[in-house]
Design goal:
The protein is α+β, with helices and mostly antiparallel strands. It is 36% helix and 28% strand. Helix 1 runs antiparallel to helix 2 and helix 6 packs parallel to helix 7. The longest helix has 26 residues. Bound molecules: adenosine-2'-monophosphate and calcium ion.
């Protein structure tokens, strides 16, 4: 897509994200319907579903060529990254949404023939919208977001997921012991946005495509790196342990992980 067209699409998508936020805030005042998916820790609510419907409908209107991979299944069967692929997580951190009414995000990533092109992470309660892509740069609420400093693991806080840390998967406890400390929030989107903002030097978690599709676009635009925990490239159509980090922190983490 041409730069002008991308700029217009980026503006329109930010409007869509803001409209989605307003709808979610309205629905938060009403009774939630909560269901378990694969376990009692894997939840979906009526708001996840209706927000996904809203986002999928809005994306199809903006981009008739869109093929949409969406967490709650409102999109398409996407089995290749060819063409215009949109990856949607309507509520990231649903456990937080249900129990805290805080610390959850909505996320959309757009890939053209597999190339990271546009990304959106909206921290709903903090009202912080991270948006952009390689051709446009990254903004937070329309202000240019500078690239974070390339800090080493030893010089910053590290975002973890509780299961990886508790079970010491990949030598996570050593990673944390090397950093200035662990921060665990329960939302991949919000923790990745903290890496974008330079508040964390990295984040490592077992993630599904919609958990990191938007974050990958934004992180790579800011000179951060997104890889699998073994250092190999991520695949946008499969789940895995994904590291988002500064270049120096990535180097340190990959030397520690097993
Ligand atoms: P979700 O709320 O969209 O499901 C919580 O630990 C973080 O990990 C959230 O970003 C959550 O996204 C995601 N998550 C929850 N269960 C997961 C699973 N089984 N595999 C991968 N990511 C998961
Ligand atoms: Ca979700």
């Amino acid at each position: 897509m041409e730069r002008m067209a991308l700029q217009q699409l980026n503006q329109a998508m930010q409007d869509v994200m803001r409209a989605a936020r307003n709808r979610v805030l309205e629905k938060m005042g009403t009774q939630l319907t909560v269901a378990e998916k694969t376990s009692r820790r894997d939840l979906v609510t009526n708001v996840d579903r209706s927000n996904e419907d809203f986002l999928v409908h809005a994306i199809r209107k903006l981009d008739p060529a869109a093929r949409i991979l969406a967490e709650e299944g409102r999109g398409d069967q996407v089995t290749s990254m060819t063409g215009h692929v949109w990856i949607v997580d309507p509520i990231d951190g649903t456990m937080n949404f249900v129990h805290q009414r805080n610390h959850f995000a909505m996320m959309v990533g757009y890939y053209e023939d597999g190339t990271p092109t546009l990304g959106y992470i909206y921290d709903v309660m903090a009202d912080k919208l991270y948006a952009g892509g390689p051709a446009l740069g990254v903004t937070m609420n329309d202000q240019v977001l500078p690239a974070p400093a390339d800090l080493d693991l030893a010089d910053g806080l590290f975002g973890a997921s509780a299961p990886l840390l508790i079970h010491d998967r990949f030598n996570m406890q050593r990673v944390i012991a090397t950093s200035l400390g662990a921060r665990i929030l329960g939302s991949a989107g919000i923790q990745i946005s903290q890496v974008l903002a330079g508040e964390l030097v990295g984040y490592l978690s077992y993630l599904r495509p919609w958990d990191f599709a938007a974050g990958r676009v934004l992180a790579e635009t800011l000179g951060l790196v997104v890889t699998q925990v073994d250092g190999t490239p991520v695949n946008m159509l499969s789940s895995g342990a994904v590291l988002v980090a500064t270049k120096r922190a990535r180097h340190a983490v990959l030397a520690i992980v097993k």
